[in-house]
Specification:
The protein is mostly helical and 176 residues long. Helix content is 66%, strand content 0%. α4 packs antiparallel against α5.
């Protein structure tokens, strides 16, 4: 039987959230079932995030080598939660978008702290932090540049996922 109460372990809650995230892909996004499953996954991930914080799993005083292997998967909690918030359409869409943006920034900050960003991604993240309001990957007026940037990012993502899958990395199971 699945637990979702206060005694549910972080591992079990995270497993449930990942399972629900996978099931969302098989549901019609306009259906009530999809909306309920999405909200349930968001609630579970918010609880996971709370438990990660309470357990102080990630510290700015630690290096990547200091993390335990089972805990690495929880680096993705904020990323997955942000992704699900971007899919949701509640009463206050702007609030959801702001929260997702904040979660993604925290996720990238943590990856940066653990030196998990590539040199190019680190430079992009630094540019973003310098001017969040006007940051863009490509000029809004240049459709060809935007297209090239989008294709390059897609290819980078595909290559990274293939590398993570081939290595058996726990991050592959988190992000894919």
């Amino acid at each position: 039987m699945e637990q979702n109460g206060p005694d549910a372990s972080l591992r079990e809650l995270f497993r449930q959230a990942k399972q629900q995230q996978t099931e969302l892909d098989n549901l019609d996004p306009r259906s009530l079932q999809h909306k309920e499953a999405l909200q349930s996954a968001i609630s579970i991930l918010q609880r996971c995030r709370q438990l990660v914080g309470q357990n102080a799993m990630f510290s700015t005083n630690e290096d990547l080598e200091d993390l335990t292997t089972p805990d690495i998967q929880y680096l993705g909690v904020e990323y997955i939660l942000a992704e699900l918030l971007l899919r949701s359409y509640g009463d206050d869409r702007q609030k959801s978008l702001n929260e997702a943006s904040d979660l993604l920034e925290r996720f990238l900050t943590r990856l940066d702290h653990y030196d998990m960003l590539s040199l190019n991604d680190r430079k992009l993240f630094e540019r973003y932090r310098e001017d969040k309001e006007s940051f863009t990957l490509a000029s809004a007026g240049n459709a060809e540049e935007r297209r090239k940037t989008k294709i390059a990012r897609f290819q980078e993502e595909k290559t990274l996922k293939n590398k993570l899958q081939a290595s058996g990395s726990p991050l592959f199971r988190i992000l894919c």
